[in-house]
Amino acid sequence: MTDTPILDAFEHMRLPLLIVGPRGTIRRANEAANELFACHDTGLPGRKITELLPVASIDELHAYIEPPACEAVIKQMVAQTCCGATVPLVVHMTAWTDPSGDLNHTLALRDISDEVQADLVSQAELLRANSAITGARIGVFEYNAVDDTVIVSDVWRELLGLERDDTQDLQLRWRARVHPDDLAAALRPVDLCLSGAAARASSEHRYHSGDGGQWRWFRSDISVAKRDAKGAVTRVVGALTDITERKAIENDLRKSEERFKSAFDSATTGKAIVGLDGRWLRINPAISAMLGYTEEEILSTNFQALTHPDDLDVDLDNLKRLTAGEIENYQIEKRYLRRDGEVVWGLLSVVAIKDSEGRPEQYLSQIVDITEQRRLTELKSEFVATVSHELRTPLTSVLGALSLLSFMDSEPLSDEAQRLLYIAQENGKRLHTLVNDILDFEKFSVGRVHFAFSQHKVQRLVEEAIMTNMNSADKYNVRFNSIGEDREALCYVDARRFQQVMTNLLENAAKFAAEGSEVDVRIEPQPTEIRISVTNSGDAIPSEFRDKIFKPFSQAESSTTRERGGTGLGLNITKQIVEKSGGRIGFDSGKDGKTTFWFTVPRKEPSAMLQD
């Protein structure tokens, strides 16, 4: 070790090297060793090796060498640097004797900090993987094709209901657990991997629990783990997962789809699934029967092509709002074009089928053929109009004649005759009101009501209504009382329809007011509308009747109502007039016997007018 070239080589080698003397003192250290142990200033020579390595003496270090060998590799030894830090090392140690006969040791050192860190990461990942596999209840197994042996995890045993200390043949136990009808399917993935036909394969099959009672579904995923020098597969690994719940969900979904398909296809009303572009994606036989086209012909086109041109814009506007999420569904009456050229009326109901993010991807439509219903409705309207007209014309003449008789003084009538004349006049008026209500109701039903909006002073309209209906006040022995401070408040209404609303509300209030009481008519101007209310004191509206009070032909089932008569159409007509005039209507009825019907009229001209 005294040759200068050898010393130069020793000093300049990049591998950290130490020469330790017989007493454990470091005799030489190259620059790489000084750098490893952070001893640049003082250097390592002269230090005891026990200060750096975890050994008590040079003899303990030498004990790593097993005779007759003269060298040893210490795979992992945690050394301590001069600054107190630790560093993991692989130490290659060689023992040799110098010319004086003293035993020396040369230590070649390799820093394995990166390898240790990588190993720690790997172990952590393996631990996480094992935890994940265990937590996910995945049973792992390995099959060695060379010696025909199987190694399984504890979770695999638990899934198949086998005890951990069960030493019986696992392959036989496994076969006994597989459903007889599924055994071939369960073995196929292993056969595919062993034969080299596939690197990975899977299957789904049933196992029964340990008592042989309940069958559960499992999935096996097999992959090749090792091959021999010739490429033949010698080992495969697999994972076993319980998928019973997933199978149950799939089964429920399948049943649900079958029920939907059955209901869809067998429905007597037309049902269709339509794409976002309007193309028919699926229809049931009822649509083909209704439109006269075959299923293939309809599926080759879109709903726009089969819609009457005059109804297309309304349908598309509703569809646009549905797609934008402004409405949840819509229902309209529209016309379809049959193959034979005839027009079919359909009641169309549409909802959006949305994806997981709530975006529409298809539409579900239901079409009810209402052609015959529309025809009958038109016939009924014509019949009601004809009958009402034929009744109203002669009735007007009869009422005129009765009125003339009541004013004749040249030939005074007896008291009995006058009583009968009065009864005839009252019944004639009731019949006239009934005919007018039926005609108005029919007009509203088919949308044939005309409104002529203009500006009016509300106070004047209300006073006119009170004067016009004084007979009702006298008849039921009540008094109408107008309350309003702003006599100049203006509104936009159809004056004739306004009077019709007031007449209905005043007559209704007088009819059910306590005898001798007052009926208050209050006018309350508000920023965009004016509120008119009619309040009487009497019996409260029955709670069971309140939800249907504005419905046609609705009357409270009480002797008082029946005795005082009525068609049950007045409030329904009133509601339609108010709403079509741009206002709102409602009522309040308390336990104190006070009942208030109120409605509003706009202070600005309504934006839309109804036309005939």
Please describe what this structure looks like.
The protein is of the alpha+beta class and about 600 residues long. It has 5 domains: about 110 residues, PAS domain (Beta-Lactamase, 2-Layer Sandwich); about 110 residues, Beta-Lactamase; about 100 residues, PAS domain (Beta-Lactamase), CATH 3.30.450.20; about 60 residues; about 150 residues, Heat Shock Protein 90 (2-Layer Sandwich), CATH 3.30.565.10. It is about 40% helix and about 25% strand. It is built from 18 helices and 22 strands. The strands form 5 sheets. It has a 5-stranded antiparallel sheet. α12 packs antiparallel against α13, α13 packs across α18 and α16 runs antiparallel to α18. It is elongated, with a radius of gyration of 50 Å. The termini are far apart. The C terminus is likely disordered.
| Helical content class | 25-40%
Mean pLDDT: 84
What structural category do the secondary elements indicate?
A: alpha+beta
Q: DSSP strand (E) fraction?
A: 25-35%
* Order of adjacent strands in the largest pleated sheet: 2-1-5-4-3
What is the level-2 CATH architecture name of the largest domain?
A: 2-Layer Sandwich
Question: Sheet bearing the most strands, described?
Answer: 5 strands, antiparallel
What is the CATH H-level superfamily of the largest domain? Answer: Histidine kinase-like ATPase, C-terminal domain
Number of domains: 5
Query: Radius of gyration, rounded?
Result: 50 Å
Q: How many β strands by DSSP?
A: 22
User: What's the CATH class label of the largest domain?
Assistant: Alpha Beta
Uncertain residue segments: 558-562, 608-612
Anisotropy-based shape: elongated
The span between the termini is: 123 Å
**How large is the count of helical segments?**
18
Organism: Pararhodobacter oceanensis
Domain PAC: 201-255, 330-382
Keywords: Kinase, Phosphoprotein, Transferase, Two-component regulatory system
Domain Histidine kinase: 386-605
